[in-house]
Amino acid sequence: MATTIKDIAAALGCSPSTVSRALHDHPQINEGTKRAVRVMAKKMNFQINQVAAGLRKHKTFCIGVIVPSISNYFFSSTLSGIQEVASKRQYQVLICQTNESEEEEERYIRALSAGRVDGILLSVSKATKKYRHLTDLIQQKIPLVLFDRTTDKLDVFKVEAEDYTGGYRAVEHLIDKGCRKIAVLAGPENLINSQNRLRGYKDALKDHELPLNKALIRVCDFSRSKAREETIELFSTHPDVDGVFAVNDELAVESILTLKSLGFKVPQQVSVVGFGNYPIAQIVDPPLSTISHNPYLIGYKAAQNIMGQIHEEHGVSPGGEIRELIASELIVRDSTNR
Amino acid sequence: MATTIKDIAAALGCSPSTVSRALHDHPQINEGTKRAVRVMAKKMNFQINQVAAGLRKHKTFCIGVIVPSISNYFFSSTLSGIQEVASKRQYQVLICQTNESEEEEERYIRALSAGRVDGILLSVSKATKKYRHLTDLIQQKIPLVLFDRTTDKLDVFKVEAEDYTGGYRAVEHLIDKGCRKIAVLAGPENLINSQNRLRGYKDALKDHELPLNKALIRVCDFSRSKAREETIELFSTHPDVDGVFAVNDELAVESILTLKSLGFKVPQQVSVVGFGNYPIAQIVDPPLSTISHNPYLIGYKAAQNIMGQIHEEHGVSPGGEIRELIASELIVRDSTNR
DNA sequence: GTGAAAGCGCTAACAC
DNA sequence: GTGTTAGCGCTTTCAC
Predict the structure, then answer these.
(1) Does B57 contact chain A (CB < 8 Å)?
(2) Between chain A's N and C termini, which has fewer beta carbons within 10 Å?
(3) Quick one: average pLDDT of A42-67?
(4) Domains along chain B?
(5) If 0-12 CB within 10 Å is exposed, 13-18 middle and 19+ buried, where does residue A11 land?
(6) How far is B63 from chain A (nearest CA, A)?
């Protein structure tokens, strides 16, 4: 059994309250007493029990993070940023993985909101359509921040990648490089991020007076095998496509590999741009031009905001700017070098 | 403020203990009462506060996980496995990232052991040389399981990849393919995993009566730029090396890219094998032969063991088999296809 | 400057 | 079957 303040009090012949105050450097406590307490605490290897302290103070010193998939490169990088911020503030991070299931997401939200954490960071699952679990959370006044996978149905702070601008920039880059018939490997239809990237594609075409051809929009649902199929199908029916924008790097890489196996030259015949700047982007041959969207920073900013809400710092909680866009950047590599 | 069992008791005109018992389906409680409590709990949107319950029961229903880096592919996959097991048992997972710092590791161990978690899963940092923080933990009887990055200085349960066997198998594969002068890109010298993989290399050479040449052992410390430098240096002094075993895939991939830029043909002139089966292994050209070591399963098994220790299930806590090796598997791709 | 006492939300031994 | 009481480890108001 671990040492408690009671044990220290007994050893010193004082009361637990004095020990508690001394450990918190309370101004009214005698310096000598403080020293004695500190020495004894060290000697007895005492560590304050934050769970008990938290129960009393209605705090947990924990934040909860719910993501679709922990092992995904993007999310594990955001987790790293979140952990960094929390650690500085002596907060612990509780992680949950929904596997893109709405029920799991609900379950975790309910579990965490029952006094487990002081605030929740959430990246919504692909399947999530109802937001009751989140409106309940807001009503309970539990700080909530959405990051990356957000929704416009909720009036909470959000940290997002520049999906629209990134998509626009990617496609504009293909146009700059001379592509005139550009296809897109799109993501899940109910995911706001995919939709925004797709809007970027459409607007870039429009602004450069290129026709929008629905047959060139291929929904791949973030699945590699789907990217392969769609690429084969696309180029068998439209062999004159000269540019491909994939809404993430996995699709882009799969597309490059498929194109090469079909005998197309990348980037000479077909240029390809991805989204995400995953490690594979540097490795594929030719190296993939892509949009870098800084997942670490997305996590970092989301965590900063929730810490702000928890400590009720000025101007961070909803009411002020409710959406923070993390800058994305075009990284030009050889997959568009023609 | 959230609903408490007291609120439910007041609403129903019974005592909090009755509510508590009803919610736990205590056999001696009247079925009618149970129903009434459940209905009222639902109506008032009650969620049991596990933190308070835990304080009383000396449990937290949390496990702590400490890893060098969350965003690393290997560790994020182990986290995923850990989370899966914990979730099934209604446990939460607290994650901490040491950034390979011994001080951070100590800090987290102390923070978590102060009543934060029921058990700790640790992958030790590259820098860790002292084990006082861990022996303290053991002395406090807090369940501890080491995974992947372990140490033989501690008598606790460990889950490891087959580093030695994997290294041996990788090198034997090169020998089978006809390589006779095989170099190794080795990892950090104080990391048991790198050392075991290196032992595998040495023993494979010995068993196949190939000479061990110290000049062919290149320490890269898991750094890609180091892998590049060492490869250049190695092949300028030993251009007749015909096989490279890299102790992880990042080094292997960097080595392939460097070799290609130097004008070597992979695999015809130089065959390369990696370790880890990272996503980049499939993408590099030629695709990398490598050792797959199942990080998800490593996390899964480690979590299963700690849950067992926490619930004091038979035969899981130290005393029985103290080391579990997760099978590794050679995956043959084109980087060794000659 | 320090102690006593109450209480955070819950559980469990002991009553009746 | 259900209520009363005490207590997990800590903080904090109110005394003195």
Answers:
(1) no
(2) N
(3) 96
(4) 5-48 (no CATH), 58-161+295-326 (3.40.50.2300), 163-292 (3.40.50.2300)
(5) middle
(6) 10
For A242-277, the pLDDT digits (tens) are 999 999 999 999 999 999 999 999 999 999 999 999
| B71 half-sphere exposure, CB direction, 13 A CA radius | 19
Question: How far apart are alpha carbons B197 and B247 in whole angstroms?
Answer: 7
Nearest to B57 by CA among B12, B7, B20: B20
Whether residue A223 has pLDDT greater than 90: no
* 3 state DSSP class of B331: strand
Of the candidates A14, A275, A48, the residue with the CA atom closest to the CA atom of residue A165: A275
Tokens for B302? 């480690």
Q: Do B283 and A253 touch (CB under 8 A)?
A: yes
Q: Provide the shortest C-alpha distance from residue A82 to chain B (in Å).
A: 10
Residue type, A283: I
Mean pLDDT of chain A: 95
Residue A18 pLDDT > 60, yes or no?
yes
Q: Hey, what are B336's tokens?
A: 């060794």
Q: What's the pLDDT band for A314 if we cut at 50, 70, 90?
A: low
Which of A303, A314, A300 lies closest to A63 in space, CA to CA? A303
Q: What is the mean pLDDT of residues A91-109?
A: 97
- This prediction has a pTM of 0.94
Contact B115 A77 (CB under 8 A): no
CB pairs below 8 Å between A and B: how many? 140
For every residue of B179-198, DSSP letters joined together read --SEEEEE--TT-HHHHHHH
Could A114 and B285 be called an inter-chain contact, meaning their C-beta atoms sit closer than 8 Å? no
